[in-house]
From TrEMBL:
This is Leucine rich repeat containing 28. Residues 104-189 form the Disease resistance R13L4/SHOC-2-like LRR domain. InterPro entries: Leu-rich_rpt, Leu-rich_rpt_typical-subtyp, LRR_dom_sf, LRR_domain-containing, LRR_R13L4/SHOC2-like. It comes from the Eukaryota. PANTHER family: LEUCINE-RICH REPEAT-CONTAINING PROTEIN 28, PTHR48051. Keywords: Leucine-rich repeat, Repeat. The keyword Metal-binding does not apply. Pfam families: LRR_14, LRR_8. The lineage of its organism: Eukaryota, Metazoa, Chordata, Craniata, Vertebrata. One of its GO terms (cellular component) is cytoplasm. SMART domains: LRR_BAC, LRR_TYP.
Amino acid sequence: MASELCKTISVARLEKHKNLFLNYRNLHHFPLELLKDEGLQYLERLYMKRNSLTTLPENLAQKLPNLVELYLHSNNIVVVPEAIGSLVKLQCLDLSDNALEIVCPEIGRLRALRHLRLANNQLQFLPPEVGDLKELQTLDISTNRLLTLPERLHMCLSLQYLTVDRNRLWYVPRHLCQLPSLNELSMAGNRLAFLPLDLGRSRELQYVYVDNNINLKGLPSYLYNKVIGCSGCGAPIQVSEVKLLSFSSGPRTIFLPAEVKAIGTEHDHVLPLQELAMRSLYHTYHSFLKGGQLLVLWLTAAPPSVCRLLTC
């Protein structure tokens, strides 16, 4: 196996290969053959998925100076070393499915980086220097242990796809709404209880996924015309608490859809998601509102917060 590996790397050096595939090699250490003499000066893409690497060499950038893409998916790497910051031409870094606990601040020096994948690790935080990645378009930090997002993340002005599923986030920083290029935001399976009211204000943001945030009971009104994933949100209501709402005019009684049962009582604040439901109902039953009689009856029986909503 070792001789075969050496031969593969030697051929790549002699023939000045730009791509080198070292996946599924059961490597426990970074191959010394890659670091011999001048290294592989022409190499642009290195694939080392599904090995058993635990660290990266400090002279990686010196020996592979033109590396553009580095794939280290499914290894046992615990720390992203400072040396990674010297790969100034790197555009894609995949460290998914490792054992990462620390990402060094030097990652912010990868000014050409466009795609960063750190999913399925043990990260509890990311350094604020992530905000220095001005060319970053994709950031996948799903399935970690993050409690917050990097405080300067809103400075990644090119960021288009942000995936933070299955972490421990309980809020979304409002400055995240300032990302001008963000097109898709996925925060499913966290502990979110609310979202910033400005979320969705940007025209670029078209897809928002907040599924399985059990404490999340409302969505900002700016998200009404977006593609939304919100299944599994909101605490389930016990059957004994369910009361089907209705209003009447003479002999006619109109029952509201069962989904409205979770709107709450007159003591509750009307959340944006509930606002959408009430406005939808108003238009649905508009044909029944003759001369304003039924509307008056409805408003008379409705909570004050709903009255203010529908008469504004």
